[in-house]
Amino acid sequence: MSVELPLWRALTGYRILTLGYALALFFLNYHEYAHPLGAALYMGVLTLWMLLTWNRVSAPERCTRAFLIADLTIALAGVLLSAVVDSAQRVDGGAATLPSIWTGGAVLGLAIKGGWRWAAAGSTLVAAANLVERGSAARDTVHNVVLVWVSSIAIGYIVEVARASERTLARALQIEAATRERERLARDIHDSVLQVLAMVQRRGAAIGGEAAELGRMAGEQEIALRSLVAGGLVPPQRSAEQLAEDAELVEAVTGAPRPPVGPCDLRALLAPHEGATVTFSAPGTPVLLEAAAAAELAAAVSAALDNVAKHAGAGARAWILVEDEPDGVIVTVRDDGPGIPEGRLADAEREGRMGVALSIRGRLRDLGGTAELVSVPGQGTEVELRVPRGSEKT
């Protein structure tokens, strides 16, 4: 909800209540006016104006500049008319003007709509009208004028700061959403395109001849793509219709079905990893997660096993342990490889190799979970993936 919306609603209530106060003062002092019929005519116009426009200040789109000018004009007319319809004795004694404190509503409307500059202009006009009506700069008049002037400018400034903060927050949320989408795409690229390019480069170099040239070109494209993924480029925001079209295009090109909806047994997704060098352990009962969350968790496990195959050596063994807890699911991937040297992960991210940063930690972060990596040189590496219950892909 907008920060300024409650101010508009409060202003609506202020105008209604202060009209009632002004009418009460008028009826109580009706016989003391020098020209009571003229005063009654103005109060009738003011009441009719309020009946026709009481909800114009309930929302910014209805409170136009023309309305604010008309509102302020009626307030100023009432202040100046008070010197004509009221007795000189009452004016000199500091009697309230015909619109009384209702005038403040017109100034506050300018403050909320246009900020402190509009508030300063409106309160200055009200101050001048009050001094003309009184005929002198009496102490109580100056006190009221300064109070209206300072309070309206302060409210106008607060509104401007609130609007700037809202714009900053909205921009930050847009950047965060775009960054999360970029990281998701980068994970998909890392899990598919980059690995294919790396394989082409290695196989081409091994075969030689024209294949070596193809491998060299694939290596150049891999480096360029890694730089693009790691460069932090933020794509423009896309509509829901465009995103749906993209999803259909990806499904048509890749042949990969969209993730199913509903609970999914995580064991069925992880069991195919078991083999001669991979041991899989899980509870005897189904480990249920939302399908999208289970798919992302399985992809993170695949990325961890890919790292084992690449960096732990051909003879390294890996173990997958699934733990089903009341508040979440924990999957641990451990290997007996040489471990990761200190600082190697940070270097890999700077080089654009985002396997751990995106394919593992990024996926778990999007699920509201965590990914903890513990590695001791010479003693292997352990990755603990924790996903809370009710996680859904964002």
TrEMBL record:
This is Sensor histidine kinase. One of its GO terms (cellular component) is membrane. InterPro entries: DUF5931, HATPase_C_sf, HATPase_dom, Sensor_HK_TwoCompSys, Sig_transdc_His_kin_sub3_dim/P. Residues 292-391 form the Histidine kinase/HSP90-like ATPase domain. It comes from Streptomyces cinnamoneus. PANTHER family: NITRATE/NITRITE SENSOR PROTEIN NARX-RELATED, OXYGEN SENSOR HISTIDINE KINASE NREB. GO terms for molecular function: phosphorelay sensor kinase activity; protein dimerization activity. The keyword Transmembrane applies.
